Amino acid sequence: MKGEFTEIINKFPGWLDRLQKSESLPRNQLQKVPDQGVYVFYDEKDQPLYVGRSDRMRPRLLAHGRPSSGHESATFAFMLTKENLNLQETGITRSRRDLQMDKKFAKKYLEKKEEVSKMKVRVIEIIDPAEQALFEIYASLELETPYNVWENH
After folding, report:
1. Strand order in the sheet with 37-42
2. pLDDT in tens, 9-43
3. What's this model's pTM, rounded to 2 decimal places?
4. Within a domain: residue 148?
5. Distance between CA atoms of residues 113 and 81, nearest Å
6. Is residue 65 helix, strand or coil?
7. Is 26 contained in some domain?
């Protein structure tokens, strides 16, 4: 077991290079994404915004932009909505569920899910859950994605 962590993290620069060089996919071309791995959402200027991971990649990517998705499924759009409405500190005084019941928030949240659904993604297959988790953080820090947060909630 000793040295396994170093062995894993030594893979990260190569994986990040492969991820950045992978095809940028729109929502309607996700049929061939791997089941397990790490993904990055990009804006229209090809700037990385958000890194995530999943063992059910295609359904997870679709959920981020599905109109019916809630805060557990469309977390990226939820963060974009909070930022747009200047509610970044929400969670202390109002729950996520309460926010979704607010008509102004719900309308903007629907708009942001639509926005996310139009973003392109890049993906890399990583099967091991520990490697996924560690690489998600590494990729987020290296790519300086503004919507990944690592605070406890």
Report:
1. 48-54, 37-42, 120-125
2. 999 999 999 999 999 999 999 999 999 999 999 99
3. 0.90
4. no
5. 9
6. helix
7. yes
